[in-house]
Structure formats: C-alpha cells, structure tokens
Design goal:
Layout: E1 9-13, E2 16-20, H1 39-50, E3 57-63, E4 74-75, H2 79-87, H3 93-102, H4 108-114, E5 123-126, E6 132-133, E7 140-145, H5 146-151, H6 153-177, E8 182-185, H7 193-206, E9 211-212, H8 215-221, H9 231-235, E10 247-249, E11 255-257, H10 258-269, H11 276-288, E12 294-296, H12 302-319, E13 326-329, H13 334-351, E14 361-364, H14 370-379, E15 385-388, H15 390-393, E16 404-410, E17 413-414, E18 431-437, E19 443-450, E20 462-465, E21 473-476, E22 480-483, E23 486-490, E24 493-494, H16 501-514, H17 517-520, E25 529-532, H18 534-547
Helix pairs in contact: 2-6, 3-4, 6-7, 6-14, 10-12, 11-12, 12-13
Length: about 550
C-alpha cells in the first residue's frame, strides 16, 4: 500500500501558483491557509499588536465538552493536517495586501508585522492521532506569542472537529458489525462537497473501514478502492445483441465463447425465469473482470432473477477456472434477502458439488447506518460486507463535534473562563494528562495535573478528584500510567514522527479493544472518568472564586 505521499504543493505568490518542495507538506486542501479563519482572530491580533501585547506568552487548550452520537467516547483525529498548517503558516504578499484593503482602519505597520509571522516560536503538545479521548481532556495544547497562537484557533478547530467526528462515527460502525465483517465507504456522491468527500474517505478508513469507492482518496492515501456496477449498467443490456464481445481467456490460456458456456450453465442449473438482459449484463461484466466478478442483483427481482443469473455466470466462470466473488444487495429487506440468497448458494453448492459456492460474499448497501447494523445483528443475517455512504460521511446522527479552543495561561498566570453552565468552565493552567490503568488491564480514569507536579507512578496510590463535583473522588493505585500529551512541534519543526494512515488506523482498532466494553456500547454506555489532581483542583476553585464578582444584594 502507498503511504500518504509527500508531494509538491502550491506556494501562493501574487496570484501565480508555483510549485515548491516542502519539508513538511502543506495540508491536503489548498484552501487551508492563514486566511481560512474568522475575522475576529485578525481583529484580536491587531488589538494585541496595537497594545504591544502580541508577544505575551500564552497557552491555549483545544478540547471538547461532550461526546458525540449519545456515546461516551470520541476518537481524536486531524492532528497531521493541523501540524501541516502550523508548519506552513505564513501570509503571502497577496493575502497581506488583501487584509490592508479589508482592514483600512488598522495601522499600516501591523501588516508589516503580519507579513513576518510564522509558527517558529510556537510549541504544540498533542494526544496521538487515533487515541480514544474524553471530554475536558486537552487534545492539543499550544504555547507561544498570543498574537500568533490566537490566529490559529479557527483553522485548527475546523481541521480537528470534522476529522474527530468522522473517525468516531466510523469506529462506531466498526463496533456495530464486529471485527469479522468488511466495511466500505461509499459516500462521495452524498458528501458535503468535494473536501467533505475526500476527508470522509480518509477518516472512515482511519476509523476502521476497509476501503472506499473514492478513487482519488485511494490515490492520495493508499486506501483500497472497491467498485462493481450500478443499476444503470445492468438495465442498459436488453438482449444477447448487446453482448458484442463474447470471448474469455480461460485460466489455462485457451480462448472460449463465454456466452455459450453461460447458456450451458443456465440449462445445467435449470434457471429459466430470470431477466435476460440482466444475464447478458452479468456475462459482459464477468468477461471484463473474471477474477473479481461481483453482481448487483436487485435491479429486477433479487431472488427470482438476480441470484439465479449470478449463479449461472458464476458456474460458467468456474468452468473456465475462475472463482466469482459474490453479490451486492442495494434494496429490500436485507436480513431476509441475505438469508434466502445464502440458502440458494448452499443449494447449488451441494447439487453441483462445488463447496466454495456456499461461501460467496454478500455485500449490502442501501442507506445503512449504525442503527441499521445493530438491527441486522438482532434479526440475524448472512451479510459479509457493508457499503455505507450518506449516513456515514454526513454524520447523520450528529453534524458537529463542538471542539473549543480556550486560553488557559498568560505570562505564567493561569486563566479561567467562568460560566453559569458548569460544563463550560475551563480548567486553568498548563497541564499534563495521564491515562491510568487498573488491575483489570484496561484504562479506568484519565488524570490532569499541573505541569510542575510529579507524574503518577505505577503501584503508588493517588487521589483523583472530579473537577467540579466535590463529592466525586476516588483513590487509584495504577498498574500502568500512560502520558497522553507529547510535544509534536517546537522551535519551528516537527519533533515527533507523525504516524502513517495505516498506523493510525491500527491504533484506533487497538484502542477499541483496550477500552472496557460498557464505555463503548451503543445503548446507555457508562461514562469514562476524567479527573484532576488535588493541586489542580485547588487552583481551579481558587481562581474560580477569585474571578467571580461578589454581588451586593442589599442594593
């Protein structure tokens, strides 16, 4: 398989595009530039600069407050694209000139400064891409001059939000079907635009899917591509007259009239009632792809025509030394039709003494989502693989994740954002995050501590506190301690090798196996515990009390 290629990427200069080989590639989408941001990031940057505050050393956390899809886990994704953006963050002359016209009230010297800005003074710590994560845990932590770090907010959020949502959605589909079934992403035609389609293919594969119908995604990311035929192909054939090319080269090298063998097989199986045009279409496709023949069998009548015509062509291929792949169902009662189709496969396998016919693959599509998969499991079915499109790539069950990017420290002073909604209160200061494993060999709690605190150690009991509910606290003696935040960007360069797409995919699947099943189940999952240390709890609540005004109710 190809890994994601390091390619020549576009460098913008005076509306002329030229190619430049980058040490760190640019983001996949060429629209990801410093201007892909909300305007208030730039107005704040100007206000910082105007007040000579733009060099203040600030820290921001990127995190989310609630797991998606009514679940209790999320998979972090989008880090590689975020680091590519940070690595290549530089305003072009055209972009600076545009901002001069767009913000005429600003001091001209601000734009001179803007033209010099890059991320060489930024430090980025992050959770490894593909890790299962939980609310309030920093997925990315950025430190550096506040004028620069502030301008990264919107772009980082758009790169992480959809990616994490999409991988989580894909992972939930993988959990629903189990490890033995194949999953293919078929969503390009229904995706939210071109970038949504390409991104969805990449992140579906990352989340545990086995392939995509998207050819461009296959080329860019090395994802296996899959595709057979549509109903239009089947219905375009009316009779034998449409079969212009009938020759097939057998496995032994001898050329034969394949249509004659199809007719012999039809007589042998005694299938006489199927649609003739469909049989011709299947024969045509088998001649084109004798080693990987899969038929779409629901164009006319699945059980009376589609399955019999497939078996006729499969038998003809068998006589030529080839093995057909299977069938695809795209409509109807998938559980019932798959079971009846399997019975027909088994019957012919027994009658013709060809055991492998009983094991033909059955692929199902037709507006499938996570709930459909769970329902099929309850009903029982004979489906080997699923093609999932619209509901996967559009994240039908929840359209957005809701990551936020909050200031937590300035010039070594922890900062907090207060809200009447407790869930929106931020946890202040620079932090380290650890995943604590218990005696049962799975993670039981995540712990945030102040960055100067000593890390928890295996075998040494620690007190874990809920950030906001003082009644919730517990002692834990770790059997294993995993540090979640690692430095990935510092001093203007990537300091940690970013894993390949296949490595991230493997990490997702490994994480799903490691987590306790009740945290992952689709119905009434158990919340995973996220906690803070005693010192961080004290800092949080002291700063909370310090920053909230005390009203005078006698007035």
């Amino acid at each position: 398989k190809m890994t994601e290629p390091i390619r020549d990427h576009l460098r913008r200069s005076n509306d002329v595009f030229v190619f430049e080989q980058q040490k760190t590639p640019r983001p996949i989408n060429s629209l990801v530039t410093p201007l892909l941001t909300d305007k208030y990031q730039l107005t704040m940057a100007y206000a910082y600069w105007k007040n000579q505050k733009h060099e203040d050393y600030a820290s921001f956390d990127l995190f989310f407050r609630k797991n998606p899809f009514h679940g209790e886990f999320t998979v972090f994704a989008g880090l590689e694209e975020a680091i590519k953006h940070i690595s290549n963050f530089k305003f072009s002359k055209d972009e600076v000139d545009y901002l001069r016209d767009e913000m005429p009230e600003c001091d001209p010297e601000f734009f001179d400064w803007l033209a010099t800005v890059d991320c060489s003074q930024i430090k980025v710590l992050a959770v490894s891409e593909g890790t299962i994560v939980f609310p309030m845990i920093p997925l990315m932590h950025l430190e550096g001059p506040i004028g620069v770090v502030q301008m990264l907010e919107t772009t980082l959020l758009t790169l992480v939000n959809y990616a994490s949502l999409m991988v989580t959605n894909a992972a939930r589909h993988r959990l629903a079907v189990g490890p033995s079934k194949s999953l293919f992403e078929f969503g390009l035609r229904r995706a939210q635009g071109v970038d949504g389609g390409v991104s969805a293919s990449r992140y579906a594969y990352m989340g545990g899917f086995d392939g995509t119908s998207n050819v461009l995604a296959g080329k860019l990311f090395g994802i296996p591509t899959k595709g057979t035929q549509a109903h239009s192909f089947v219905s375009s054939y009316l009779s034998e007259k449409d079969l212009k090319f009938k020759t097939l080269t057998k496995v032994d090298g001898i050329q034969v009239d394949f249509w004659e063998i199809v007719q012999e097989s039809k007589a042998q199986l005694k299938f006489q009632d199927g649609n003739k045009g469909e049989l011709v279409a299947f024969a045509s496709y088998a001649i084109s792809f004798p080693k990987s023949f899969v038929a779409l069998i629901d164009t006319y009548d699945t059980l009376k025509s589609g399955v019999p015509n497939f078996l006729i062509v499969a038998l003809a291929l068998h006589k030529c030394g080839y093995k057909a792949g299977g069938v695809r169902l795209d409509s109807g009662d998938l559980a019932y039709l798959s079971k009846e189709t399997r019975k027909m496969f088994e019957k012919v396998a027994t009658e013709q003494n060809i055991p492998e016919f009983a094991k033909f693959s059955i692929v199902a599509s037709n507006d499938i989502n996570e709930q459909t998969l769970l329902s099929l499991n309850q009903q029982g079915h004979e489906i080997n693989a699923f093609g999932v499109g619209t509901n996967l790539v559009t994240c039908q069950a929840q359209p957005a994740l809701g990551c936020v990017y909050k200031l937590v420290q300035v010039n070594n002073e922890p900062r907090i954002k207060i809200s009447q909604e407790v869930s929106k209160i931020t946890i202040p200061g620079n932090k380290r995050v650890f995943r604590i494993w218990g005696n049962q060999k799975y993670p039981i709690i995540d712990l945030m501590i102040e960055d100067q605190e000593k890390a928890p150690l295996p075998g040494k009991r620690i007190l874990c506190l809920h950030p906001f509910d003082q009644k919730k606290r517990a002692f834990v003696t770790p059997t294993q301690v995993e540090s979640l935040l690692e430095t990935v960007w510092e001093s203007g360069k990537v300091v940690k090798t970013l894993p390949s797409l296949d490595d991230i995919r493997s990490k997702v699947l490994k994480n799903l196996q490691e987590m306790r099943e009740d945290h992952l189940r689709p119905l009434n999952p158990t919340p995973y515990k996220v906690s803070v240390s005693t010192d961080l709890h004290t800092l949080l609540h002291n700063l909370w009390m310090q920053e909230v005004p005390i009203p005078d109710i006698s007035i």
